[in-house]
Amino acid sequence: MRGERRLFSGLDLEVSAGQAVALTGRNGAGKTSLLRAVAGLLRPAEGTIEFDGEAGPLEAEAARAEALHMVGHHDGLKSTRSAWEELLFQARWTGGSEASARAAATRLDLDRLLALEVRRLSAGQRRRVALARLLASPRSLWLLDEPMAPLDAGHREGFGALMAEHLAGGGMILAAVHDPLPVPCRTMEIGG
Amino acid sequence: MKAFLILLRRELALAWGKGGGPLLALAFYACVVTLLPLAAGRAPERLASLAPGIAWLALALAALLSLERLFERDFEDGALDLLALGPAPLEAVAVAKCLAHWLAAGAPLALAAPIAALALGASTQIIPLLIPCALAGGLAFSFLGGLGASLALGSKRGGLLVAVIVLPLYVPPVIFGAGALDALAGGLPWTGGLFLLLAYSAAAVALGPIAMAAACRNALD
Question: What's the whole-model pTM score?
């Protein structure tokens, strides 16, 4: 529910290790809301969201704090800080280290940008800084909201490869998209 | 705990970083302390008797000014989502933010308060009390201000709303602190006011974060 509007109901979705699901639907259908509900930032009016670990059900709070990443429309970067300071904070905050942040930056082709202030970066470059935390601290579920919208063709391909790698390692991806995801995935239409 | 320190370091870096930090709060403090006597009249005796109160009230205003955007910026740029999904609960996030605000603005202001009081002609004997009062009161100002800032999240007229929410909550510490200073200057027992101020600050530090976290969750929902 957003305000007084019911976005969707009767939704049943299960994602297992190694799977990706692309959420599609018109603008305002509720893709972002669904992602935020899975992340626990938004309380659904009814229904449940459950997390299972290898050994059985996980406490939702713990799963959200340790097992999922969300990269949304907003990159959450402070414009006056350098890209490296922001990446390092995001990596550490989610459980990564300086070394893992450095490696993640390299994989997202950020090395030359790290010294720049965030406000000097383009939208696509900022998004890559935000995406870097996915690699800097490994977590199994990635919630992505239009992750590749601002990326150029080359970096879309590169990020596609990173997603494929994440899935091959037993990770899960739930992504709201308009363009097809560059990895094998199921598609789920939200809001009909 | 480790996550808390990581966040505290970042908040401090942001508070001290470009676009103000303690310098702006101090400049605002200096302005208020200079303006109030202009309105109060020229008689030095009157000014001297008002000095502790002015130095104290201006602290509350300076703290308030720098608090308005404590949560708003993170809310707008999406960083609050990230903070909410981190290893530390939102309550700890709120503590880190308010503590960083206190370290970056409250503590420097507390050190500036005696200078302001002396410049206005207050007697030197209140200085040893003014600093601890300003430090403890500053904690209350930061944590209650954070409460106002979190409650005003997402509203269009955030700044004014924060002030309207927070200023009534600033009444007790202003009264307790000014009372203690007044009593000391008048040769009366002053410990009561100081202890009430300390108790109020402790309550703000203990309870404020719970309310701030709830307000943030509400804003994110």
Answer: 0.89
